[in-house]
Structures are given as C-alpha cells and as structure tokens.
Amino acid sequence: MNEVEITRRFETTAANTFRISLNPPLFVRGEGALLYTADNVAYTDLVGGSATSLLGHGHPAHRKAIMIALDSGILHTGTRLPSPHRAALYSKLSEVLPEHLTRIHFANSGAEAIEAALKVAIYKTGRRRIISFEGGYHGRTLGSLAVTHAEALRRPFEPWDKPWVDFSPYAFTDSQTDAALLVLEKLLTAEPVAAVVIEAIQGVAGVRGPCKRFLKGVEHLTRQSRAILIVDEIWTGFGRSGSWFAFEQAELVPDLVTLGKGLSSSLPISAVVGREEILTSWTPGSHTSTFQGNPIAAAAACATIMEIQKEGLVARAKNVLAPLMTSALKGLPIRVCGAQVAIDMGSKAASLEFQRRALENQILIYGGGVSGECAML
Fold first, then answer.
1. What are the distances in angstroms from CA 370 to CA 150, 202, 264?
2. What is the pLDDT of residues 115-155, one digit of tens each?
3. Mean pLDDT value of segment 92-121
4. Which of 72, 244, 285, 311 is least crowded, fewest Cβ atoms below 10 Å from its Cβ?
C-alpha cells in the first residue's frame, strides 16, 4: 500500500477511538530523535512514541537485546513457566527501585498496572473507597478511568452503581498545600479508604509539581488512615523527571508504584512494584493477564535500564536537558522538570495551532494540560 492507501485504510477501518493527524506523515524508519519518511524527509520526534521511547529510535543495544530474545524462538510462555528474560528484569528493576519495594507484578500497559494496584489495595485492606486527585490521569480502562479526573472522559460511563472514588485538590505550589491537605484529611476520615493514588508530577496535566511539602503531607495523612499509598510513575519513571522516579524528589516512601511507558523504551510492558506484605497478600490466580511479562518486552526493558545506567541518562535529563529547554524556550510560559516540558499556550486552540505549525516544520509534539492548553515536549 502507498501512503494515501495506508491513511485511507485507517480512516475507513480503525475504530473511532483515536484521530490521526491531518495529512499525517508516514514514517518508514527511525534513528535517535529522528523519524524519516519514504522520501527521506527527517522529522524531529519530541513525542517519543507517546512518551515511551526513552532511548530514541533504533538504539543499537536495544535492538540487539530484542533480536537475541527473538532468535531464541520463544515469543511467549505464559505466566506459569519461568522466563530468563523476566527473571533478568526482576533483577534489573531491583537495582534501581527503593529497597522496600521488593515484589513486582508485570502487566501490559499503564492502565493495566493501575487496575492491578487498585485491586490489590482493595484485596489487602478489605475497603472499597479510593481517593485520587484533581488533574490526575491514570488510564482509560474502567478502573483506571474511575481515578482519572477528566470529567469529559468519565462522563459517558457514569454513574457507577455506587460511587467509589473521591477527588481531592492537587497542590503543585507551596501556597496551595495547606488548603489541599485539609480537604484530603476530611475525605480520609469520612469513611475507610483502601488507597490514595497520586502522581508525584502530573504529566498529562502539563508537568505540574512536584511540591514536596504537599506530597509528604499526602503520605502522612495516608499512613494515618492506614490506606495504601499508590504512586503513579507511568509517565515520569526511568529518569524523565531528572531522577529515576519522581517520588524520590519528594522523599516519598510509597507502598505501591505503577510503571510503564518508558520501562521498555516502546514495547508493551508495565509493572506494579510494592511492599512484600501487599503484593503477596492475594492468592495465585487473583489477577493475571495472558501476555504479562512477555519475554521480548522484558528483554527490551532490561536493555533500557542498562543503557540508562551506562549512558548516565538520569543525570543528563536533570543537568543538561532542563537548562537547555529553558534557554531555548525563553520568554514562553513553560514548566520544566527533567526532560519533561509543558508550554502553556493559554488555550486548546492556541496549543493546536502551535502543534500544527511545528508539524509543518518537521517537528512532532503533542498537546496536554488540564484543558488541552499545553504543548508537550
């Protein structure tokens, strides 16, 4: 099929759950931060596969690890049989995670990781209430959508038979902290809560945070209520925030952490990591998924972590990229945390126009923000 036929096939066959760009480029190869069309026109990719391609496109070590796994001829064995690639990933993750997070459950996407974290919190505590935060984004399956604040996304699927999620204000500045914590305290004391789920930095909402005093206050109140603290690192994990995990910047000690996106630098794999007593509380068969811990994706994830370590990419995101971004975008209303950048354009229309003009100049960016007002790099 040629470029026109491929685009037409998407328009006539794909379910109407996403919209492709107007006159989208069709890429046939990638190298580093560049994507190339069949005519060898290069585009600078500041989207990174929806924030997944931490190593860029076609990274040699990444490709090699995938090819070695493919050459074994074993594409999947299911969850009941051990896999050397999955075992290796357990080890690599343990190298970069805090010591108290000793157990790991693999899944296939960020939304699935959130689902698993919510389920085990309910299973462990015997409670049903969840608290999430205004501006938070955690996925679009029913469970993950229930803790996502965007009303436009949730409205078609409400009301639930019985509302089970409350949203508390998210403070991304110190001046907002006291009022936000007061609301959270009231919610936590109104009735028993199974879990509090929060992003240390709200990525999709436009790189908001981290505010250490607020996050430590959330941790303290959650501990007081004996609820489980779930930190969502799907967007920010593996160095994008300038630290391995954004919660480290606030010195949080989470009970469960959800990981995804950059974990494998583009292949479908995610994880819930957590305390021993939580992730061993449910019985075998309580929560499984056919392709969880797929060996090809696990091999890619191992290579990703190894290359982040080898190339010092966490320090690079913190010490090189943030100052560079700030200098390059001087004068624009921007928020930068590590390698995450949100340019506040003031409105969704202005953000869309900015994205369109960037595409005309062979630069790929996405929109974001609470109301779509941000251009995200």
1. 8, 10, 27
2. 999 999 999 999 999 999 999 999 999 999 999 999 999 98
3. 98
4. 285
Write the pLDDT tens digit of every residue in 172-221. Answer: 999 999 999 999 999 999 999 999 999 999 999 999 999 999 999 999 99
Residue 128's φ and ψ, nearest 5 degrees, are -120, -15
Closest CA relative to residue 237, chosen from 324, 338, 148: 338
- Pick from 213, 214, 226, 285: which is nearest to 255 by CA? 226
Q: Which of 126, 130, 104 is nearest to 118 (CA)?
A: 130
Q: Cα–Cα distances in Å, from 18 out to 13, 48, 110, 331?
A: 12, 18, 18, 33
CA distance readout (Å), 256 to 93, 225, 273, 312? 14, 16, 6, 26
Under DSSP, is residue 51 helix (H, G, I), strand (E, B) or coil? Answer: helix
User: Do you know the residue count of the chain?
Assistant: 377
Helix, strand or coil, per DSSP, at residue 292: coil
Neighbours of 247 (CB within 10 A): 27
3-class DSSP assignment, residue 143: helix
